[in-house]
Amino acid sequence: MHGMGKVAVLMGGPSAEREISLMSGKGILAALREKGVDAHAFDPAERELFDLKREKFDRAFIALHGRFGEDGTVQGALEVLRIPYTGSGVMGSALAMDKWRTKLVWLAAGIPTPRFAMVKRTSDWDRVADTLGMPLIMKPVREGSTIGLTKVMRIADLPEAYELAAKYDDLVIAEEFIAGQELTASVLGEVALPLIRIEAPQGNYDYQNKYFTDDTRYHCPSGIRAEVEDEIRKLTLKSFRVLGCRGWGRADAMLRPDGTFSFLEMNTSPGMTSHSLVPMAAKATGMPYPDLCVRILEGAALDGRPPA
Where would I find the ATP-grasp domain in this sequence (predicted)? Predict the structure, then answer.
């Protein structure tokens, strides 16, 4: 495929989500090559990014997940190297990676998100439970893929859940648990794709169920009321833009039985494996996986204008 030049698919990397990133990257690489793109695998954990310049790559497809891939750092390096890349820029990536500051921006913009408290080892757990209700969700502020996340049923278990989350980040957030239907809303360019409703075993959509089991059921079309789906898709675009995101991404949301909903977080470099959600949503609109990969790659850009 012409006009794309030499493309690096950045995969692997040093984050806790390396394994999934390699799975995403291999899928993308095969798809781009199938479409005639001159694409090559590139693992930033094994090579220095400056090799991208040395080896005259024209653009980068970022298939890195988690820190150093989704948090603005790789994006900043590519800005300096002047190599256009897929997905959000430096600020959008950094902001979306930080669940706490994402919520602050969303609240300011009128995007519904669950109630929360920033907690520390010395927090008054009775008070936290009192404020947010039980059960609640405890998670690190800057990790993806439900890593370090616990659904806590009893007040006595809060300190232990805190310690688990704190292993991954010195910032830990406790969040109101929302019982309801789990939804995921994908953004591609200026469009919100059809919602996917996730039905996990015992409602437990954890790391294992997310990537390695086939018991989780995905519904696309989602089967929720059309007007609610329209409203969520409209707000998804707003939630994406207000964080300064671009290119593509995926928001996770919860729909309560009463029809109200809350956005949990924004992923700026979502999974692209065979199990993944953005490819599923694109397929529902008639876009096969290889076409989706090319479409995302076409959106590769730099934040700032090059100096004159």
Answer: 103-298
CA contacts within 13 A on the Cβ side of 271: 20
> What does the pLDDT look like over 69-101, one tens digit per residue?
899 999 999 999 999 999 999 999 999 999 999
DSSP 220-252: SS--S-HHHHHHHHHHHHHHHHHTT--SEEEEE
Structure tokens at 50: 């400056």
pTM of the predicted model, to two decimals?
0.89
Q: What is the CATH number of the domain that holds 287?
A: 3.30.470.20
Q: Is 265 annotated as a binding residue?
A: yes
- The answer to the question of residue 280 being in a domain is yes
Say how many domains are in the chain: 3
- Domain check: are 25 and 127 in the same one? no
- Nearest alpha carbon to residue 236 among 278, 174, 296: 278
User: Which residues constitute the domain of residue 270?
Assistant: 95-112+179-292
252 marked as binding residue: yes
Task: For residue 306, tell me if it sits in a domain.
Answer: no
Give per-residue pLDDT as tens, 184-209: 999 999 999 999 999 877 655 454 44
Please give the pLDDT value at position 84. 97
Active-site residue (options: 21, 24, 93, 276): 276
19 assigned to active site: no
Q: Structure tokens of 107?
A: 């609240």
Q: Give the type of residue at 118.
A: M
Q: Is 262 a known active-site residue? A: no
17, 143, 175, 229: which is the annotated catalytic residue? 17
- CATH code at 123? 3.30.1490.20
* Domain match, 191 and 209 both: yes
Q: Active site residue: 145, 186, 239, 269, which one?
A: 145
**Is residue 55, in this structure, part of any structural domain at all?**
yes
The C-alpha atoms of residue 277 and residue 186 are separated, in whole angstroms, by 8
The model's pLDDT over 220-253, given as tens digits with 9 standing for 90+, comes to 999 999 999 999 999 999 999 999 999 999 999 9
